Amino acid sequence: MRTTVLVLFLLSSFATIASAQTTHKRTGDSVRLPGAAFAAMQKIDPERVRAHVRFLSHDLLEGRGTGQRGGDIAAEYIATQFALYGLKAVGDNGSYLQKVPMVGITPAAETTFSLVSSKGAVDLKPLDQYVAYDQTQQPQSEVDADVVYVGYGIEAPEYKWDDYKGVDVRGKVLLMLVNEPPSDDVNFFKGKALTYYGRWTYKYEEAARKGAVGAILIHQTEMASYPWEVVRNSNSGEKSYLKLDGTPRLKAASWVQFEVAKQMAATAGMDIDKMMADARSRDFHPVSLPVKLKAHMVSKIRPFESNNVLAMLPGSDRRLKSEAVMFTAHYDHLGIRPDMPGDNIYNGADDNATGCGILLEIARAYSEAVARPRRSILFASVTAEEQGLLGSEYLGKHPPIPASKISLDLNYDDVPPLGSPEEVEVSGSERTTFYPVIEAMAKTFRLTIRPDSRPEAGHYYRSDHFSLARVGIPAFSVNEGTKYKGHDAAWGLQQAEEFTSKHYHQPSDEYHPSMDFTGDAAMARFGFTLGSAAASQSKLVGWEKGDEFEPARMKNSAGAQ
Ligand SMILES: [Zn+2]
Question: What's the pTM value of the predicted model, to 2 decimals?
Answer without folding.
Answer: 0.88
